[in-house]
From TrEMBL:
InterPro entries: Cys/Met-Metab_PyrdxlP-dep_enz (IPR000277), Cys_met_metab_PP (IPR054542), PyrdxlP-dep_Trfase (IPR015424), PyrdxlP-dep_Trfase_major (IPR015421), PyrdxlP-dep_Trfase_small (IPR015422). This is Cystathionine gamma-lyase. One of its GO terms (cellular component) is cytoplasm. Pathway: Amino-acid biosynthesis; L-cysteine biosynthesis; L-cysteine from L-homocysteine and L-serine: step 2/2. Belongs to the trans-sulfuration enzymes family. It comes from Panthera leo. CDD domains: CGS_like. GO terms for biological process: cysteine biosynthetic process via cystathionine; transsulfuration. Its cofactor is pyridoxal 5'-phosphate. It is an enzyme of class 4 (lyase).
Amino acid sequence: MQEKDASLYGFQPRFQHFATQAIHVGQEPEQWTSHAVVPPISLSTTFKQEAPGHHSGFEYSRSGNPTRNCLEKAVAALDGAKYSTNRYFRQVAAEFGLKISFVDCSKTKLLEAALTPETKLVWIETPTNPNLKMIDIEACAHTVHKHGDIILVVDNTFMSAYFQRPLALGADICMYSATKYMNGHSDVVMGLVSLNSESLHDRLRFLQNSLGAVPSPVDCYLCNRGLKTLQVRMEKHFENGMAVARFLESNPRVEKVIYPGLPSHPQHELAKRQCTGCPGMITFYIKGTLQHAETFLKNLKLFTLAESLGGYESLAELPAIMTHASVPKSDRDALGISDTLIRLSVGLEDKKDILEDLDQALKAAHPPNAGHN
Ligand SMILES: Cc1ncc(COP(=O)(O)O)c(C=O)c1O
C-alpha cells in the first residue's frame, strides 16, 4: 500500500509520518491542566505570573498565545522546520518602499542576471498563480546562495506542506497563505512562515511582537484543526484534480489544460522530482472568446464562481477579470492570462458530480449542434 501510494503518478514518495505529526505534534493533552485532547481556544490576552518575570511561558498574547503555539508547532513539524511564525513579512516589506524586480525564475539564468550586490531577498512562488509554472527550488537556492547572504522565500500556498517541502530543497523561508489549503475550510484569512535559521527566527519574532501582527486565537484554532485533515484532503484534491485535468484535456471544447500532474505540462518532470503530488488547482483555456468563458462559468452548478482556492468546495474563476484584474493588460498578455483562461480549485465533492458539472457547463458554452460532440 505504502509503495503504491509512493509511486502514484510518478511523484516523490510522501513525507513520512505526515498525518501522525499533523494530528499530534504540539497538541499534547499534558500541556493543559485539564488534559484536553483538543487544544482550547485561549482567548485571554494576559497570563498570571508567579512573581515579576516568572511566568508559565506566556506573558501577553501578542508575544505568545497557547492556541497559536499549538498551530506553530504543528506547521513547523509538517514543513520539516524548527520554527513556524505568522506572516507579516510581505506587508512590512511593501511599506518600506524596497526596490523590487520581477523575474521569471523558471529560467535560472534570468534569476542570476537579476541579482545585484544590494539583493537581500528572493521571493518565488511555485507553482505560479494562475499559470501553474513550476520553479526549480533547489536550482534557485543554489543560484541565490552562491551570491551571498540572500534570503530565499518560497510561497508554498498552492502545494501545501503535504506536497512540497521548500526548506528541505534549500529555501530559507517557507510561507503560506493559510487561507487556502493549510486551513482548507475557507473560513480563515491567515499567513504562515516556517524556517530553520535561529537568527532569522529571532528577528521575525521581534518584528511580530513589535508590530503586533498576530492572528486571533479563534483563527489559530481553526487552522490548527484544518491541519488534522491536510493529508486526506490533499490526497482527494490530487485524485479529483487529476480526473478533472484528464477530462478537460480530452475535451474538444477545451483549447489547453495546464496541470503539473499531466505529462503534457512543460515542467512535469520537475514536478515529479520536486513534489509528492499535485493539488486541485487546474488552469485551462476554453475554446472561443470571453463570451464562451462567461457562459461556461454562468452554467456551473456545483462549482461556485468565486475567488480564493484550496477549500473543500470547488471554485471557478476568470483571472483576467477577477483575481488578476489589477495586473496591467500588457503583463497579462505576456503571461498568457487571456479572457479564455479559467482557473479551477477542484474541491472534495464526488468526482463524478464534479466531472458532470464541468461537462454540462462546457456543453452550454459550446452547444453540441455547434460542431462539438
Ligand atoms: C499563492 C498565493 N500566495 C499568497 C496569497 C495571499 O493570501 P492571503 O489572501 O491569505 O493574504 C494568495 C492569495 O490568493 C495566493 O494565491
